[in-house]
Amino acid sequence: MNRSILRAAACIAFVSAALLVVPQVRAEDAANPDYAAIVAAPDRSDADRQVDQRRQPAKMLAFAGVKPGMTILDMAASAGYSTELLARTVAPSGKVYAQDSATVLERFVKDRFDTRAKAPAMKNVVHVVRDYDDPIPPEVKDLDMITFFFFYHDIAYLPVDRAAMNKKMFAALKPGGFLVIADHSAKAGEGTSVAKTLHRIEESTLKQEIEAAGFKLVAEGDFLHHAEDPKDIPVFKAPVPIDEFVLKYQKPQ
What we know:
By secondary structure, this protein is an alpha/beta fold. It has 2 domains: 1-31; 33-250, Rossmann fold (3-Layer(aba) Sandwich), CATH 3.40.50.150. 41% of the residues lie in helices and 19% in strands. The protein is built from 9 helices and 7 strands. The chain has helices at residues 2-31, 35-39, 46-55, 57-64, 81-90, 102-117, 152-155, 162-172, 203-212, and strands at 71-75, 95-100, 125-129, 143-149, 173-184, 216-221, 244-250. It has a 7-stranded mixed β-sheet, with helices on both faces. Strand 1, helix 5 (81-90) and strand 2 (95-100) form a beta-alpha-beta unit. The longest helix has 30 residues, at 2-31. The chain is globular. GO terms for molecular function: methyltransferase activity. It comes from Bradyrhizobium elkanii. InterPro entries: S-AdoMet-dep_MeTrfase_Alr7345, SAM-dependent_MTases_sf. Keywords: Methyltransferase, Signal, Transferase. Residues 1-27 form the signal peptide.
């Protein structure tokens, strides 16, 4: 009789422990999204899938560490390719602010962004039309992450105070928040001199400017590195894949 009671108590203890483990596993799964599945969503456009081939979005999302529930600012969102991927990843409770200047928006991408904005996947996106050197509404604070993909080189030849822009981004992040930035590589020593002609920027120049605002480099991604790129051809005309650098910065705690 005593043995039966002991066996029953042991079974109850085992089941209770198992039940306690289940929520932990589910929470872990939620915190580590299936980025490949997000990219493979059947309602994404064929045009975006073509861009995927050179942008490697699943690797980019994983490198950045985008999680459900995050609040993210997507700088220079353009037509919204990255914005939509971020929005899908932070859903359902997260939010993405898609920033662009009025001038760039009107001249190049307004119709394309507005069309994309009608998609259900964009319901947690707020479009922010502000100058690049003052990109963040005053009420937006304690961001988890800022992304800045393949446009910093353009900022370099536009009438933008980059130092002011970088300080504004730093201030808008919460302590421990991240800035993930990627761009097209220029040759060593070229700095920003080929930003308009080749649409490239020297990695060390970008690093110097970002770090001057207080950001600390915590990771570098090599998944868009292409050694075969001679770096002397305009990005949009290159016959080989473009060499691109990906950097992850953090605002100190």
